[in-house]
Amino acid sequence: MTFPQFAYKNITRNLRAYMAFYLSSSFAVMIFFMFAMFIFHPALETGYMNNIAKKGMKFAEWIIFGFSIFFILYSLSTFLKTRKKEFGILTIHGASPKQLRWLITLENVFIGLASIITGILGGTVLAKFFFIAGAYMVKMEPLQLYFPLEALGITVGVFLLLFILISQFMLFTIHSEEVISLLKGSEKPKKEPKPSILFSVLGILFLGTGFGMSLFAGIDMGSAVVITLCTVIGTYLFYSQLSVWMIQLLKRNKKMYRKGINLLWISDLTYRIKDNARLFFIVSIVSAVAFTATGTLATYKLMFSTAETSYAMEFLSYATNQDEKKQLEFIKEKLEQENIDYQQTIFKAIEARQGPMSYPVLVVSHQDWVKQFPELQAPNIHDGEGIYYGEAKRGGYTIVNGNKTKLLTDDQQMSITLQSIEEPVFYLSDILVVDHNTFRQLEQNHELSTMYGFQFENWKESLEISQEIQSQIVGETFNPNAQYFSKAVRYFETVQLPSLSLFIGLFIAIIFFLAAGSFLYFRLFADLYEERKKYKSLAKIGLSEKEMVKISTIQMAILFFLPFLLAIIETGFALHVLQREGGYFHVFQSGVITILGFLGLQIIYFIIMSHSYNKHLKEYVFR
């Protein structure tokens, strides 16, 4: 039998031991491949929004790959720890370090190739759903399936190299141990964990400081760094010291501790939490980041919507604008270059302010308004009356039918009785339609501004020219003499970009969350051999199958949901900061929905894992 055959037989004869590592690697490859298919899709070669989506996917792709390195590294290290005894036996029988290196490299290449093939097949099957979901959320045209040659090449090359490099790195951990240590594997006796009271108190102080500052402190860059550091350090001390101390306090309650099976699962839980402190710390932090990011992105998306206005483009030229003619010609030139058939509306208006909060408004003659907008069927008005087209609520000021509103200009002030309040017609300004005599009085002392409206179909496709026009008229920041609005730009900024961010962020958050659950899964199955022997001994002195399942399920529930609970608490404080400082009023609603969604995933994951874990225990202990 050749050495490659030996490595292959080693995998196929012990497939159950390799399965967790293989599935986790396949999952990482599948997600990477689907994002690569999106990035290299031919339909994304042109178009501004497509280019933005492509850049966002690239950013997400390399975040996923970076996390995949850590994910696969942890999976492999946990997997190899369960095989230390096997490596010790091979060393005793004459296997050289070079042969061990070759064995592990071959095994990783075999598993890596299988994972790459499975991941690519799974990604191909799910790609259509991924394209439909992505296009729907980002409000793009649905993407068609294609033959992803570039995506295949980069996925195979990157992950095959990754498996080889990681296997070489992990060999150092094996070579650094003596043969006797390898043979003992995980059978070394463990000392009872003894927490430090000092570090336990420090954990309380760090968490208290982080949470307290989140509630009451003003937030700037410095305080944000302090809150983050306090929360991170406090979380680690909670698992490594404080939680062990709390379990020891629980043990002092003899009545509760010695009741039924409590003694077994509480005493064992001390070792479990102490051994997995770093793992729980990572899971809590990763989960909290995933919850907070997803809730924030969802909130940002809810805060905005596309502007429901009559015109695809608006151009407001104030009386002081010297470049009006040139800017108007530029707009028309761009529209004609794209063969856009547009309809233009023009009317003159007076720039004024109204209400106690001095909100800007354009004052228009009723005669001109009816001429330009006969479809609105504006009713006749008398002297001193007006019709208001705009938002009725402006901060703390509400415009009410029948009330008088103060109309302010540079040198005049008059009261206008509002006959009715109608839906906005323009985005750039609210409109106050007044009777012809009132308008003539105002016109005598003021130069007129001009509002241009451009209406055309398929306005979503005008994003690129709209951005060129906006740059020409408004410039880098602000033009006091003119304003420009494009429905396509507004739609891009308030719908497409937030949707793209949510889509990418949600995918990354789900990956991080599932990876966090996988870390727990790998750790549980790494300890499975030792746990089976423990329960086998307990079964000999009367432990029933029902009691064993109950003990292991309680322990698994604590291991799965304790980091989740702490992540929820940390997310709550983070969302509170965002609501208090950023004005994200729907952030808690989005955060609760996000957490409930992830909780559902966690419960499903827990049910599957506990069933599989208990099945392995029962097969060994009570067979």
UniProtKB/TrEMBL annotation:
The chain crosses the membrane at residues 20-39, 59-80, 109-131, 151-174, 195-219, 225-250, 279-300, 500-526, 556-578, 584-608. GO terms for cellular component: plasma membrane. GO terms for biological process: transmembrane transport. It is found in: Cell membrane. It is a multi-pass membrane protein. Residues 63-171 form the ABC3 transporter permease C-terminal domain. Keywords: Cell membrane, Coiled coil, Membrane, Transmembrane, Transmembrane helix, Transport. Residues 318-352 form a coiled coil. It holds the Pfam family FtsX. Belongs to the ABC-4 integral membrane protein family. This is ABC transporter (Permease). It comes from Geobacillus thermodenitrificans (strain NG80-2).
